[in-house]
UniProtKB/TrEMBL annotation:
InterPro entries linked to this entry: DUF1192
Native source species: Rhizobium tropici
Protein name per its UniProtKB record: DUF1192 domain-containing protein
Xref: Pfam families: DUF1192
Length: 63
């Protein structure tokens, strides 16, 4: 990592919670919905992975 990495402009995120939506087109809004739905699915998969790992650990330590 270079000493100058912090000087590069930050790429804006695809969506920021609470941002003004009035300037976006219908297609842009639909793209953001698809992006957020994908992120929700990814979060739900992580929850399921963690829950199954916890269940496995609990069953291992039960007497």
């Amino acid at each position: 990592m270079s000493l100058f990495d912090d000087d590069r402009p930050q790429q804006p995120s695809a969506h920021e919670i609470g941002s003004d939506l009035s300037l976006l087109s219908v297609d842009e809004l639909k793209n953001r919905i698809a992006l957020l739905q994908g992120e929700i699915a990814r979060l739900q998969e992580e929850i399921e992975t963690k829950a199954s790992g916890r269940k496995a650990a609990e069953s291992l330590f039960r007497f």
